[in-house]
Amino acid sequence: MTCTAVAWLPVLSLLLFCIGDSASLFLPDSKELRQLLSRYEEQADRNSIGNAAGNRSRRAVRWSDREEIIQLHNNLRAGVYPTASNMEYMVWDDELERSATHWAEECQWDHGPHDLLMSIGQNLGVHMGRYRPPAFHVQAWYDEVKDYTYPYPHECNPWCPERCSGPMCTHYTQLVWATTSRVGCAVHTCPRMNVWGQTWENAVYLVCNYSPKGNWIGEAPYQHGRPCSQCPPSYGGGCRNNQCYKDSQRSETEDMNEVEKPQVPLPPRTTTKPAPKPKPSAPRKPVSKPSTPKPTTPRTIKCETRLRDKCRGATCNRYHCPANCMNKKGKVWGTLFYDVKSSICRAAIHFGAIDNSGGLVDVTRKDKLPFFVRATKNGIESLSKYNPGIAFVMTKVEEMNADCYTTVAEICPFKNPDSHCPRIFCPTDCKTQPSYWSPVIGNNIYTDSSSICKAAIHAGVISADGGFVDVLPLDKRKSYVGVLKNGIQSERYCTVPEKGAFIHYTLT
């Protein structure tokens, strides 16, 4: 990565960037933005009187600075030229702010940390001397527009050319990247900071992290067209200040990262009794469609547990049987095909999927059979039944070593009514793999083209050290959400008709 410095007088300031080739585009002068920036600078000048730099050795992003950063970002994004048809309204993200804080406190004049840069975008700025508000650097990033030329669709065949006639334009393109909808920044004053071989004292360091990341090679930062004419369906047609906007849009928190928000409005309350105030840490449950069966997760069951007690209204899949079920009282009807009144674990021993030490077993529910025959196998005697009943079959769970790029589509594509995947053992270091080799698309439910192991880290099933993962293939969905979770930014797709889905789960 080649880096360059840009001097800002009378204050020495730097912007860190990657050099690219481009031409230029000039934004028409904005009186409103100039007045806004002048107000920031005047306020900063007043604050600088009587405040020595040593008194600011450590300070967080003030609420006023945070609001200025968001307001300036959205005003600049709304005024791009040529106009953007899919520009999304930007909100503050506490998780991105925390990650920016951790990096700013390192006082390293470089992008980082490296394991997070695969998932987020990042702009940096630093200055020393007279105090400048964070908005000073945000405006400087945007001012790179003078060296940038927007690539129109007819120039992208299929990849868009990079056109930057100045030292760099990547700060500007990240700032106006249409699908980047969240930002979190941190300001830290470093007592001594090495900036390209020179030691700066009391350097004020600004780090802004963006999600989803922008600056994808070969892509334009946004789509040209009438404002809000190509917004993602999740915005419901909302538009504010030339940007795609939800009426209930607000800064994303950890709780919002954990659970997808419902996409349908909740029914109105029919009573005047005030609702109890919810706890801040309790995430709102997503609204599920009644027609979609909720998949079960593998769980430890008892030796006497019958299949009909576990499969009513849900998909039968993988269960964990305890040890010493051979001598228990649970009854088994049938051979090879078993009646749903049968004990799952004792039928698994009878079939040979597990032995008396227990273990994992896969179950597939079948149609109704006219009768079931008896047999003695593996130390268990089954019973006969000459009345029709719903049947199920057993399968031994296989184990498979996977790499960081293995997908569900490769090893066990979805089949109706269900598919059984082998138990996957994931290696270490999948978290740091590039997204273009090991993508993660979705949140808790992922597309079958996602990396199994990296998605498992995103879902919190395993850590970056790897481990065993169980996968349940599901039918395709119309949309997948993308969130930053466990250090990985997943991607989102609103319409993926050709892709299936899969969900990670663990034993309970």
Offer a concise description of the structure.
This protein has ten helices and 23 strands. By secondary structure, the protein is an alpha+beta fold. A six-stranded mixed β-sheet has the order 8-9-12-15-11-10, covered by helices on one side. A six-stranded mixed β-sheet has the order 16-17-20-23-19-18, covered by helices on one side.
Structure report:
A hairpin with a 1-residue loop joins strand 18 and strand 19. The N terminus is likely disordered. This protein has about 500 residues and is of the alpha+beta class. About 20% of the residues lie in helices and about 20% in strands. It is built from ten helices and 23 strands.
Provide mean pLDDT, rounded. Answer: 78
Q: Percent of residues in helical segments? A: 10-25%
Biggest sheet: strands side by side, in what order?
8-9-12-15-11-10
**What is the CA–CA distance across the termini?**
46 Å
Report the principal-axis shape.
elongated
Summarize this structure as a short list of keywords or feature phrases:
disordered N terminus; 508 residues; 6-stranded mixed beta sheet; 10 helices; alpha+beta
Layout of SSEs?
Blueprint: E1 12-16, H1 31-48, H2 63-78, E2 91-92, H3 94-104, H4 114-117, E3 121-128, H5 134-142, H6 170-175, E4 182-195, E5 198-211, E6 239-240, E7 243-244, H7 254-258, E8 299-300, E9 318-321, E10 334-335, E11 337-339, H8 344-351, E12 359-369, E13 376-377, E14 380-381, E15 389-396, E16 399-401, H9 408-411, E17 423-426, E18 442-443, E19 445-447, H10 452-459, E20 467-474, E21 484-485, E22 488-489, E23 501-505
Parallel strand pairs: 2-4, 8-9, 16-17
Antiparallel strand pairs: 1-3, 3-5, 4-5, 6-7, 9-12, 10-11, 11-15, 12-15, 13-14, 17-20, 18-19, 19-23, 20-23, 21-22
Protein name: Cysteine-rich secretory protein LCCL domain containing 2
Organism: Scophthalmus maximus (Turbot)
Signal peptide: 1-24
